[in-house]
Amino acid sequence: MSEIFVIGVSHRTAPVGVRERFSLAQPQAESPLADLLPQKSLNGLVLLSTCNRMEIYASADDVPACRETLTHFLCRYSSTAQAKLTPLLYQFSGTQAAEHLFRVASSLDSMVPGETQISGQVKQAYLASLYGGVVDPLINHLFQQAFGVSKRIRRETGIGRLAVSVSSVAVEFIRRHQPDLTRQQVIIIGAGEMAEQAAEALYKAGVSEILVANRTFARSAELASRIGGRACNFEDIPRLIRHADIVIASTFAIHHILSLADLEPVMKTRKKHLFILDISVPRCIDPEIGNLDLVTLADIDRLQELGAENLKSRMEEAKRAEIIIIRETEKFTRWQRERAAAPLISALHEQAEAIRRKELARTLAQLGQVNGLTPEILDRLTRALVRKLLLAPTRSLREEALLNGRSQFLKAFQKLFELEIPPEPDFPAAKT
């Protein structure tokens, strides 16, 4: 019988310097799955990779073997020694794993609780596994329930209405260092979703001038036109920084797009402070830049403190959401435990029905020519006898499953009645 297991790192357990080693560009999000498919300890899996977390959900018959397989994979994938990575990993199985996913999908485990992006990211991760053919019935049920939990929490609590994005928190963070934004010149590096949200938040805050620089000039121009800003060439960033007050970087670059060598000569000619916020994972601004005079460099981990303060204003809504999580986790646990008994119950009833039919046919043959109603009467009689005889053992199976899940009682029951349990059918892959 499979069990759910999850292992990973997030903003709660590992600094950005570690998390950025796991960062995946979206088009490559499926590639690690093929690396795990041959492992016999895995029946299904989903890999979730966002700017703040990298975790793998697996359905496995042997949890210790699954843990070892996935730990080695994460170490290999991130090029990190196991001794260094293991203390930063969180690992949950069974009920705790289900509860963790429900919290993640509902944004209660996010850096900014209530943010709306994570539910879509969880669904994309699930679909990648579905299309890759690595979703089994247990994984499917868990994630389908997680999507329902997320919708229910947004419908029944106010946490969604109070939601703020990472980018808007970034702008609030900047305002704590630069209270008056109306006289500030800002450079936005990148034109993706987070960059766009930051630009729009700055525009609403009354920033006097916003420059947008992206590797694709057309994308820069498109975003700049919506916020009344100005599109710039990516290569001009070092020159533009000479006059900027604030730089916000949000890109998918694998390497640093702004190095110490780029900025050091620029800062020698400046007399005013420069604030840089790098909300990219992996970071695209060289951390050494933060050591320059007149430069304040903050990365996405610096936003956690502010996100925690924002959560205080949503504690009541968060408490209501936590109650839903607890109830939904109990619901999943009941389903999983009942699922353990279901094959036994089905096999028991099928075995009894086969015996009933065989003995009924033999009895009718021995009776020879009988009244036309006799077969129907005997059929009803034997059905009733079997149903009543199986009522108590069926109830005991369900009760034992709910109380103890996969217990020795269920194994003994199977052996006692010599029940054959067919293997669980593979979950069909989605058609493309």
Provide structural commentary.
The protein is an alpha/beta fold and 432 residues long. It has three domains: 3-163, 2-Layer Sandwich (Beta Polymerase, domain 2), CATH 3.30.460.30; 166-311, NAD(P)-binding Rossmann-like Domain (Rossmann fold), CATH 3.40.50.720; 336-416, no CATH class. The protein contains 16 helices and ten strands. The strands form two sheets. Strands 7-6-5-8-9-10 form a six-stranded parallel β-sheet, covered by helices on one side. Strands 2-3-1-4 form a four-stranded antiparallel β-sheet, with helices on both faces. Helix 14 (315-367) runs antiparallel to helix 15. The longest helix has 53 residues, at 315-367. The two termini are 30 Å apart.
Structure keywords:
53% helix; alpha/beta; four-stranded antiparallel beta sheet; 16 helices; Rossmann fold; Beta Polymerase, domain 2
